[in-house]
Amino acid sequence: MRITLVLISLFSFFIGLAQSDALLLKAEQLDTEDIREESATIFNQKIISASRSLQELSDFPFTIYVITKQEIEEKGYNTLVDALKWIPGIRVSQPGSGFEGETFTMRGLHGNTYAKILINGMPIRPYPTRGMPIGAQLPIREAERIEVIFGPVAALYGSDAAAGVINIITRQSERPLYTQANISIGANGYSSIHALFGGKLGRGNKIFKYNIYGSTTSFDTRNIFQDTAYLYNPDNYDIDQHYLESPNYRSNGVGSILPSLNETPHLSRLGGVDFSFQNFSLSAQRMYRRDHSAIGLNPAAISYNNPNNFIAETIDNVQLSWDKEWAKVGLRINGHGLRYKSDKNSSFRYVHNILNRGLNLGAEHTSSTPEELEMKEQAIFDRYFSGSRFIYNESREYRLEFLNNYTPFRFVELVIGGDFHHTNSTIENFLQRPYDKQQLGKNDVTIDKWSKIDWRSNLFGQAYISLPKLKGILSFNYIFSKIYDSGFNPRLGLLYSITDNLTIRGFYGEALRYPTSYYFGNFYRIDENMLNEIIVGFDQSDASLQGVFDEFILTNANKILIPEETFSYELGARWSPNSKFNFDVSLFYSETQNFISFEPLLEVETPTQQHFIVNGYFNLGASETKLYGVQGQLIYKTNPENPRFETTFGFSFTQGTESLPDTSQVSNGERSLNFVREQPDFIGQLQFGFLFTEKNKIYVQNSFVSKSYSKSLQTRAEFDISADRFEVKPYYTMDLIWRYRVNPNFTGYVSIYNVFNAKYGGLSATGTPDDLFYNPQSSRLWTFGLSYRLD
To answer: Does the global pTM surpass 0.85?
Structure first.
C-alpha cells in the first residue's frame, strides 16, 4: 500500500512537473533532434543485440523482431510475455508456475530457460533458478524497445542463449524533458501504476542524461480453476490415495474428494534509474515478484488451500559502463552485479509430492510390518512435509566484460571481447520456519555451500562485413568453466540483396547451456536404510556415485551433469516493396541434445550393494529434440506514420520429434515421440488496428494455437497412463483495446483480454509428475486506465 501511495504521488508530481515551463530548456538551446517526431519503420530500425554494435535490422542475416515503445504504449503491454505473445512462433503461458511466473517457448524450447533475457545488454536470469522469473517487475512499459533474436546467439552472449536473445533496452531520448505515467484498474482487484521521468541537462560534451522510473502491479486472484472435477481431482494423480492421509490436504467439505481451491494473488514491483555522463553510464533496477507457489501443480502434490503460500524474490541488477570511441576504434568496459534473494516467507504446503512418494517407497522396502511402515511414514511426514515448508535461495553474481570494436575499412568491423563471471549461491529447502541461518533445525534440509560456487569466463570475437549487396557475420565464443568442460560456440550468417527491397539470408549457429545450481539443489538421494537423512545435491566427482548411473545417463568423465547442446540452421527472406508493406519469412531446423531432464523415483544400487532412491535431474541417455518449420510475419499499414488501418499477421508451422530414454527398462531403453512436447504444429497471431477518428483507435488481437502435449506426459511407463490426459486442446483467443486520446498528452483506454472467456491450457509448470495434466490459463479480464506522456 505504501509503494502504491508513493507512485500515485510520483504520477501527480511528474504531470505537474512536465507542465511547468520553468524546467524546460530555453528555445535557443533546442536542436533538430530535440523537436523532431520520433518514428521508425520496420526494417530500417537500428538494433544492438545482433552484433553488440548499433546497426540497421535489415543488414543482419538473422530472424529479428523489434517491439517498439509505441507498440508497448498503445497495446498496453505490462509484462514481457504480454509483448512476446504477438511475436511469430512464440507460445505463452500466463500463468506458467509459481517458480517462474509467466512462461513462453521459442522453437520448441522453454524460453525462460533457453533464451537469454537481458536488460541493456546484461543478463538478468539468476543462477539458482531454472528459468528467468517473469512478472510485471521487468521494465517493459519503461522500455525504448525490446529486441527479439531467434536462434543460438551464444557466440556473443555465452551459455543459455540457445533459443535466442531478448534484450530490454530502457527509455532513451534526446529530449530535454520527458515523462510518462500510467494508472489502471480492473477485474479481480487488478491495479497497476507506472511512472517515469527523465531528460538531459548541460551543454556541449558535458550533458547529463537521467531516467527514473517505478511501478507496482497487483491482483487478488487468477481465474484458472476450470475443469475442476477432472483437472483438480487428486485421485487422477495419486494412485495410492496417500493424499487423503496427509494433514495438509483440505477437501471442499464432508464427502467431497475435490480440494479447497483458494485465491492465487500476484504482486510485482519495480524501481530503476539510468544515468549517463560523457563516457560513463549507470543502469540499476530492483525487481520484486510474488506468485502463489501451487500454480500449475496438481492438488495431490501441493495444496491450494492457503493463499499465503507463495514464491517471491527480489532481483537487484546494477551495470556500470565506460565507453570511448576514437577514429576507428571503440572500447567498452562493463561491470555488472546481480543479486537474487528469495522472500524468506516463500513456502509450500506439501500434500504427497514426488519426493514424498520416493521416501514412502523406501519405507515400504525396509518395513517388515504394517505398524513399522506407518511409523516410518509418519516420521517422514514430520521431518520433511508437516505444515508449511519454507524455501530460501540467494546468489551474488559479478561480471566484468570488455568489448573492443575496430573498423580497419569502411565495410569491415571487428569485435573482440571477453568476460569473467563469478557466482556464489545458497539453496535451503524444507525449512520449518522462514530462513534464519542461525536457527536451522534438524528437520531443515539444505545444500552445502561448497557445491554452489562457480566461475566462468568467455572469450569471443566477430567479423562483420557490409558490402553494397552482401552482408556477412562470423562470430565465435569459447567458454571456460570451473565445474564443466570448456566449450566452443560458432555462428555464421550471410545476407544478399537481390534488389533494394528484397534480401535473402542464411544462418548457422551453435549454443551450449550449462547447468545451474537449481539442478544441484533439486537432486535428492535417499538411502533406504537412512530415511531420516536425505542427501541433497551432489559433487560432480563424488566417488560414491561414479559408475552408478552409467547404464542410462550420458556421462562425461563420471560427471552427473554436462552442458546441453543446440544446433540451428536457417534460411530466410525479407521483402519490403514500399513503406506500407513488410514481409519476413524463415525456414529453420533446430536440434537440441543431452537434455537435462527430471527423473523421478529412480532405484539404483551401488557397487557396494547400497540401495538408493534418486529423485532429480540428469542428462538422460540420447535425449534430443528435432524441430523444423517455417515462421514469418506480414505487416501492412495504410500510412506508416499515423495509419488509419494496420494489420499484422504472424505465423509458424512446425513438425518435430522428441526422444527420451525409458529408464524403467534401465538398459538401452528409449522412447520416441512423433512430436515435441508443448510445441503446437501451428501458431497464428492476427492483429488489426483501426483509427476511426483522430481520437479513437481500436486494436483487435487474435491468437490461434493448434493442439499440443504437456510435458506432464512422462516417458516412463508408470507415469504414461494415457496420452489423452496430457493433450492441450486447440484454442482461439481475442483481446480488444480501445484508446481515446483526450488531448495530445492524455489517453484513456479500455482493454478486454480473452473476450470469449476461452478455457485453454498453457505450458507445464515444472515438467515433473507433480504438474497438472495441463496448465489452465486465466479467463476473461477487463481493465481501464489513463496514461500521460510528454516528450
So the answer is: yes
